[in-house]
Design brief:
With 284 residues, the protein is α/β, with parallel strands linked by helices. It has 2 domains: 4-218, Spore Coat Polysaccharide Biosynthesis Protein SpsA, Chain A, CATH 3.90.550.10; 228-278. Helix content is 38%, strand content 20%. The protein contains 9 helices and 9 strands. It has helices spanning 14-25, 44-54, 69-77, 98-106, 137-142, 175-180, 193-203, 228-246, 253-278, and strands at 4-10, 30-38, 58-63, 84-88, 92-93, 112-120, 160-162, 170-174, 207-218. It has a 5-stranded mixed sheet, with helices on both faces. Strands 5, 6, 7 and 9 form a 4-stranded mixed sheet that branches. Helix 2 links the parallel strand 2 and strand 3 (58-63). Helix 1 packs parallel to helix 2 (44-54) and helix 8 runs antiparallel to helix 9. It starts with a strand and ends in a 6-residue tail after the last helix. The model has no long low-confidence stretch (mean pLDDT 91).
């Protein structure tokens, strides 16, 4: 049954967009694909429009600027009404049966609000963002700010594993849940908007799950490689926004001030890490 609308938000995503859309459109469960491009100046829009010319299920929205991932997801979701909504990054390359498998698994639980998948890179290494604990100041301190400080180990015995948050790279939701929550908080530009949505889904009494046996290739960082320092800025901005909204520890003004210093003091360290990673190796 074709009852899933997929929203794909892209920004300089030409390297993976064609493969992403081809795979989505090969799925018999997909009734609609809305591509929202956030101000790309590569061939992303042309690739999306070529698919639209061949397949009436495809709608392309080309923004002149980049309003952010959250705002673009909401923009795309407003263009469709199918009972299931899939939010798919253009660097996620799904098998043709993956969305149908996620939908069938979601149907086995009455409380499902979001279902994610087991995301892996091209070497088969699992993405730690696919299964996460709640973001709190205490966990950031315990993990020393590492990217995997929120990671939850996969429980291979469970087809659907309940977690606090999944990755925004791939989410399947009942449309009714997305609408009831008003979609993403578009105050986030990039990063932590998925944590925010998962938190509000849980606060509304729904479950957030990851499908451990639905493995999806996620070619991470396709668009973020262009502006890594801006990405780090937005990541820290998103973390701060999330903490001050949801972490009860920050109701204490002293802890709030400490958290602000911690988050923004970490930014130059993150920028240095990016600079070192981008530095070309010395010639022998």
């Amino acid at each position: 049954m074709a009852d899933i609308a997929a929203v794909v938000v892209g920004h300089f995503s030409q390297s993976t967009l064609d493969a992403c859309l081809s795979r989505l459109l090969a799925s018999t469960a997909v009734a609609r694909v809305v591509v929202v491009d956030n101000g790309s100046r590569d061939d992303s829009v042309a690739i999306a429009k070529a698919h639209a010319a061949r397949d009436p299920r495809v709608l392309v929205l080309a923004n002149a600027h980049n309003p952010g991932f959250a705002a673009a997801c909401n923009q795309g979701a407003a263009q469709c009404s199918e009972p299931w909504l899939a939010l798919v990054n253009p660097d996620c390359l799904l098998a043709t049966s993956d969305l149908e498998a996620l939908r069938e698994l979601a149907g086995t639980r009455s409380d499902v609000g979001i279902v994610g998948a087991d995301l892996v890179d091209d070497a088969g290494v699992r993405d730690s963002a696919a299964r996460r604990h709640e973001l709190t100041l205490a966990r950031l301190l315990a993990g020393l700010g590492r990217r995997d400080s929120l990671a939850i180990a996969a429980d291979e015995q469970q087809a659907l594993q309940r977690v606090d948050a999944v990755s925004g790279a791939l989410m399947l939701m009942p449309r009714s849940v997305f609408d009831a929550l008003g979609g993403f908080d578009d105050g986030y530009r990039l990063h932590a908007e998925d944590l925010d949505l998962c938190r509000r889904v849980r606060d509304a009494g729904h479950g957030v799950y990851v499908a451990n046996r639905v493995r999806v290739l996620h070619v991470r960082g396709v668009s973020s490689r262009r502006r890594p320092y801006w990405v780090e800025w937005q990541k820290h901005r998103g973390i701060w926004r999330y903490l001050r909204r949801f972490d009860p520890q920050l109701r204490n003004p002293w802890w709030r001030a400490f958290a602000w210093v911690l988050v923004w003091a970490h930014l130059p360290l993150a920028a240095l890490r990016v600079a070192l990673a981008r530095k070309p190796p010395r010639s022998p």
